[in-house]
Specification:
It is a single chain. The chain has about 400 residues and is an alpha+beta fold. It has 14 helices and twelve strands. The chain has one domain: Cytochrome P450 (Cytochrome p450). The strands form four sheets. A five-stranded mixed β-sheet has the order 1-2-8-5-3. Helix 6 runs antiparallel to helix 10. The protein is globular and about 60 Å long.
Length: about 400
């Protein structure tokens, strides 16, 4: 069987740390939209790199599985060697039943309550930033904003944000650098600490009437109220990572986007009605989740190629969101892009991010604060980028604020 071979291992950390991923993905979109890579630290894998192919894989969920016991949802096998049975790493009907427990936390009525808290937190954070002095945008804005909202969703004290961030970083640590026993052992220590802390909260909720917070919803549900310890670890880790990492990295990307395309900030000042669309565009432009993975449950055809049962198909969102056949002048950050909402940054189909509305609200609110304050956020040197092929983000973005 002849397969189009991928000459570049796009799972390499260096592509993302050095910000050199655009060229190899553009080459693949042009010459091999679906290609096979035999050799990588994570084993052999297919790469789907166009918007059409990624969307197709997402929608064919009965053939392309997310199940944790088939390999889970990232290019790595399992999660640091462990099965991680959270609801995003399940197929129907388990996925549907567990997702229904979480989804009401982001209903329209709940979003009205959360929106007021988002606005208050964002204003408070921005009020506290120094003007004319260097500081780290990730540390002072992106992390406290997203983790603060996560603490609200969990009904936990904000003072615990550093622990939650640490556990989130460990839970999302997909990297060739982490494929060793030392890392795996420390991963289990961190996940055990996380479980111990959250089990205290879950047990406290169990003895109280149901409320709107995520932990209460979990413990008072049939689908998630009696999970085994590894299931609790996996689902808590999912909520932590999904609830802060992606939004955090999109917020950090705003600095780079407005620096490279300063005219877009002026467009927003001239027409603030574009702000919600700008929030969609920064998710497309940054693609905070670089990829998701599926596993074929049977022999099937995709993109003119035969995928064998058990083979790994990696959906590169970061490439699909740069697909010129869908997004004209795709590299540009365009706050008025007419189809920005077609991005795949939150996934597609039944696994689309359950908290996407809250992420969009946080991003739009932050953009609105930047616009209304008549300030420029000026980079103070190069950012430090995350060493991972899974989450596309920043560990540090040094900046200073200048009034206009």
């Amino acid at each position: 069987m002849t397969r189009p071979l991928n000459p570049v291992d796009v799972s390499q950390n260096a592509l993302y740390v050095e910000d050199t991923w655009r060229e190899p993905f553009a080459m693949l979109r042009e010459t091999a939209p679906l290609s096979w890579r035999e050799d990588s630290p994570f084993g052999a894998y297919w790469s789907a790199v166009t918007h059409e192919l990624v969307s197709e894989v997402e929608l064919r969920h009965k053939v392309f599985s997310s199940r944790w016991d088939m390999g889970n949802i990232t290019i790595a096998e399992a999660v640091n060697g462990e099965g991680f049975p959270n609801f995003i790493a399940q197929d129907q009907p388990i996925h549907t039943a567990q997702r229904k427990v979480i989804a009401p936390a982001f209903s329209p009525s709940q979003m009205l309550k959360l929106d007021a808290q988002v606005k208050a937190r964002t204003k408070e954070l921005m009020d506290g930033l120094p003007v004319g002095e260097s500081f780290d945008w990730v540390e002072r804005v992106s992390i406290p904003q997203t983790l603060g909202m996560l603490c609200i969703l969990f009904d936990m004290p904000f003072s615990e944000w550093r622990d939650i961030k640490r556990w989130s970083d460990w839970a999302s640590g997909v990297s060739a650098d982490n494929l060793n026993e030392e890392y795996r052992a420390q991963f289990m220590v961190q996940m055990g600490e996380m479980l111990g802390r959250f089990d205290q909260e879950l047990e406290a909720r169990r003895g109280l009437p149901p409320t709107d917070d995520l932990l209460s919803r979990m413990v008072h549900s049939d689908a998630m109220g009696h999970m085994e310890p590894i299931e609790r670890i996996a689902n808590i880790a999912l909520l932590i990572v999904g609830g802060n990492d992606t939004t955090r990295n999109s917020m950090s990307a705003l600095v780079e986007a407005f620096d490279k395309y300063p005219e877009e900030l002026e467009r927003l000042r001239a027409d603030p009605s574009l702000i919600p669309n700008a929030a969609q565009e920064i998710v497309r432009w940054q693609s905070p989740v670089t990829h998701m993975r599926r596993t074929a449950l049977e022999d099937t055809e995709l993109g003119g190629q035969t995928i064998r049962k058990g083979e790994k198909v990696v959906m590169w969102y970061i490439s699909a969101n740069r697909d010129e056949k869908v997004f004209a002048d795709a590299e540009a950050f365009d706050v008025a892009r007419p189809n920005a909402r077609r991005h795949l940054g939150f996934g597609h189909g039944i696994h689309r991010c359950v908290g996407a509305k809250l992420a969009e609200d946080q991003l739009a609110t932050l953009i609105g604060e930047i616009v209304s304050r008549n300030i420029r956020i000026v980079p103070e040197g190069a950012p430090t980028r995350l060493a991972s092929p899974f989450l596309h983000g920043f560990t540090s973005v040094p900046v200073r604020i200048e009034p206009l």
